[in-house]
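Cross-check.
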Amino acid sequence: QVQLVESGGGLVQAGESLRLSCAASRTIVKMGWYRQTPGGQRDLVATRTISGITDYVDSVRGRFTISRDNAKNTMAMQMNSLVPEDTAVYYCYALYLGKKYWGHGTQVTVSS
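Predicted model, tokenized:
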């Protein structure tokens, strides 16, 4: 079992920044963030492995940066130059023994 606790999120204006954080209850090889809009599916945003390999969806590459503190089992995502299209509920996820675990989700709202 893996527990994930998220923090961050909120309401900002376009062009501003936010930082999301996620704390895991154990060491996880691969963690990342998904996001979901109302009526939409949950889409992958970014991932980072414990060895530092990162991957980003094209729409956020260059604006979002995912980082991890392996010693503390935490992950963060710095989101810069936010646009209204980034508005969604963001979910921390962890891949552990072939199973995905999810955080509770945190709302990010970007006003134009």
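The radius of gyration is 13 Å. The first strand starts at residue 4 and ends at 8. Passed to J.P. for a second look.
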